Amino acid sequence: MIAGRKRGLTATMCRELKRRSAIEATIGHMKTDGRLDRNFLLGHAGDAINALLVAEGQNLRLILTVLALWLAWCLQALQPKTAKSDASTRLHGFGISTP
C-alpha cells in the first residue's frame, strides 16, 4: 500500500485500512494511558509480557468505566421522585410559571 494513494484500492485494501485506522487510536491511548512507551522488562518475553499487561490494564479501565456508569444509573433510579407540586414551587421561585 502506498501512502496517499486512493485510486486502485481493492475492497480488501479499504477494509484493512479502516481496521488499521481504528486500531491505531487504541494503541495511541495504550501508549499514553497504559505506559506502553516504557518497557522495564528484559528481552522478547519481556516485550510480550509488557504488551499483555498494558492490554489488561486497558480492559480493566473500560470495565471500571462501565461499572461506574451503571452505578450512577442505579443511584439515579433509587432517588425519590419529586411531586409535581414540589417541582412547581421550585420553578415558581425562578420566575417560571407552570399550568
Describe the structure.
The protein has 99 residues and is mostly helical. The chain has one domain (11-93). Helices cover 70% and strands 0% of the residues. The chain is built from three helices and no strands. The chain has helices at residues 11-33, 43-78, 84-93. The protein is flat, with a radius of gyration of 25 Å. It starts with 10 loop residues before the first helix and ends in a 6-residue tail after the last helix. 0% of the residues are buried. The mean pLDDT is 77.
Summarize the structure.
The protein is mainly α and 99 residues long. Helices cover 70% and strands 0% of the residues.
Could you outline the blueprint of secondary structure elements for this entry?
Layout: H1 11-33, H2 43-78, H3 84-93
Name its key features.
99 residues; mainly alpha; 0% strand
Uncertain ranges: none
Mean pLDDT: 77
Give me the secondary-structure category.
mainly alpha
Q: Helix share of residues?
A: 55-70%
Number of domains: 1
The total beta strand count reads 0
Order of helices and strands: HHH
